[in-house]
Amino acid sequence: MSAPQSEWDPGIGARNATPDFRLLSAGTATMQPMPVVCVATSFGDIPSVDRTIGLSADLGLWVFDFRVVKTGGAGGAGDDIRLFSGATGISSLIVTNVADETVIRTTTIDDAVNQIAAGGTLTFDFDDGGAARPDCTAFVLGFAVNATARGESFVPWSPWDPGQAAASVQAARAPFTGDGTRQAAGLYGFVVDTGAFTAAGPVDRVITMPAGINFTVLDGLVIKTNGANGANANTVDVANGPGVGSPILTQMNMQTADSAGGALDDTDVGRFTGVNDANAVVAAGDSIVVRVTRVGGDASCLVVVLGTVT
After folding, report:
1. Sign of the CA dihedral 212, 205, 239, 229?
2. What confidence tens digit (pLDDT) does each residue in 75-119 have?
3. Beta bridge partners of 122
4. Which of 50, 86, 237, 251 stands the most exposed, by the fewest C-beta atoms within 10 Å?
């Protein structure tokens, strides 16, 4: 796949103020939102096949989600698909024996293999059970990173012409009502990595918006790392700072956040269930606060916050 054009006007700054594309330590850091890249491929009524898609030499991808839309009619027994990096599964097995137009989302992301190096490959393992229509379209969502090893800075890119004035860009992307022709807003985000989190108490990680960047939070998810949460009411809050008194995403309890309502095990994906629109816009200079509160056990996780930029 080819690289999109440059993200930020060079006057804004080409990279994060921190050397990592994720916020790792407790405290505050000014970080630019990272552009989200989507890799998509469609499968028709074909036999089982592995399909490999190569990334361009200047594009690394940090995968945080994988979802499938069922097409072409209802599926049948034995129909499924899974995302791989080499011989290792990044996602859970997604069963596509579902009704036409159903959306199915991965329940796990393996953080040991979810970063694909620039020039690397993604493999879709597609199985047709032969009982019905296996057709589907698969979507991989990730952050564009310029890295051959997890932890290097991201490549900033843009859906708009970098020659446009900042005010023009913001006006084109601001929310509006009624009919009209508008420029599409891209999806951006941040990652907070708690590292190994088995100590007591809550820990806040604070992401401050750079000058000229307003961020509207739309969604988020948690990838459990470092072991199982177990029977512990460890929670994740995402708020419009300071503190967590102005929540943006509905608080997640990792004891009940897996796809079946149980505790998050290692690699499980938990999805936030609501957005408080009154607090969702984080203005330039203001902060997103991600608080992970450990009650017991292992609260280690990756927190992904997604939104748009104006």
Report:
1. positive
2. 999 999 999 998 899 999 999 999 999 999 999 999 999 999 888
3. 53
4. 50
pLDDT in the model for residue 301: 95
d(CA 15, CA 21): 9
**Residue 99 falls within a domain, yes or no?**
yes
- The span from the CA of 159 to the CA of 187, in Å, is 10
User: What mean pLDDT do residues 23-32 have?
Assistant: 77
With tokens 């949460």, the residue in question is 229
Q: Do 215 and 293 fall within a single domain?
A: yes
Number of domains comprising the chain: 2
Q: How many CB atoms lie within 10 A of CB 36?
A: 18
pTM summary value? 0.86
Same domain? 190 vs 128: no
Residues 134 and 227 in one domain: no
Residue 13's pLDDT band (boundaries 50, 70, 90)? very low
Whole domain around residue 58: which residue ranges?
37-145
DSSP string, 77-139: TT-EEEEEETTEESBPPEE--S-TT-EEE-SBB-TTT-EEPTT-EEEEEEE--SSS---EEEE
Which residue, 145, 176, 198, sits at the end of a domain? 145
pLDDT of residue 146: 61
Q: Are both 49 and 123 inside the same structural domain? A: yes
Residue 2 in any domain: the answer is no
Residue 271 belongs to domain with CATH number: 2.60.120
